[in-house]
């Protein structure tokens, strides 16, 4: 068999599925040689990559048998581990954390302190959002020669004119001028 235009026609692409190209190009004997060198976990991971790669596994009889054996062993070991360590039931798909994840208790009691802390964080978030909106409104009205500063007395947004070396800000109806 010739390898003419097998992968060369796809040169320059960002992503290229070489195994898919070998599969569609009728080079299954090369795929069989590649699959022989994969271990059980590699075969399981290969089936998860894409439907094309799963079709490659299904087309090779030996690799498919090894994949099924590996999958059964993995399922059996995970169910035993799940029963022993009280981990989540869907641990097969969350393998890296199966041994450290515990099932959360069904009832969670919140004390008054935690509810107060939650209320404080919500008020801080809303106040920071309102300060952000104040500063963004003032920033929209800046001229080319002005910059945005914070009043050192009250923390309000102020327009600073570098030529005059002073800042002006509005707080409510009053307009104040602060020399910096």
TrEMBL record:
Looking up Gene3D superfamilies in the UniProt record yields:
2.20.25.20
Any matching Pfam family? F-box
| Biological process according to GO | negative regulation of meiotic nuclear division; regulation of mitotic nuclear division
What do the Gene Ontology cellular component annotations say?
nucleus
Q: Where is the F-box domain?
A: 29-60
Q: Which InterPro entries match?
A: F-box_dom, FBX5_43
What is the official name of this protein in its record?
F-box only protein 5
- The source organism is Crotalus adamanteus
């Amino acid at each position: 068999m010739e390898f003419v235009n097998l992968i060369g026609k796809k040169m320059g692409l960002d992503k290229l599925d070489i195994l898919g190209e070998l599969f569609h190009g009728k080079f299954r004997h090369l795929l069989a040689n590649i699959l022989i060198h994969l271990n059980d976990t590699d075969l399981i991971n290969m089936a998860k990559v894409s439907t094309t790669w799963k079709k490659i596994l299904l087309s090779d009889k030996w690799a498919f048998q090894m994949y099924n054996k590996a999958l059964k062993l993995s399922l059996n070991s995970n169910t035993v581990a799940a029963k022993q360590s009280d981990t989540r039931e869907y641990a097969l798909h969350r393998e890296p954390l199966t041994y450290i994840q515990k099932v959360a208790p069904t009832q969670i009691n919140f004390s008054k302190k935690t509810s107060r802390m939650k209320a404080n964080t919500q008020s801080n978030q809303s106040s920071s959002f309102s300060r952000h909106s104040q500063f963004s409104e003032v920033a929209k009205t800046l001229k080319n020669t002005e910059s945005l500063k914070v009043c050192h007395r009250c923390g309000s947004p102020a327009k600073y004119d570098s030529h005059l070396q002073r800042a002006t800000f509005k707080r409510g109806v009053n307009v104040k001028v602060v020399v910096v």
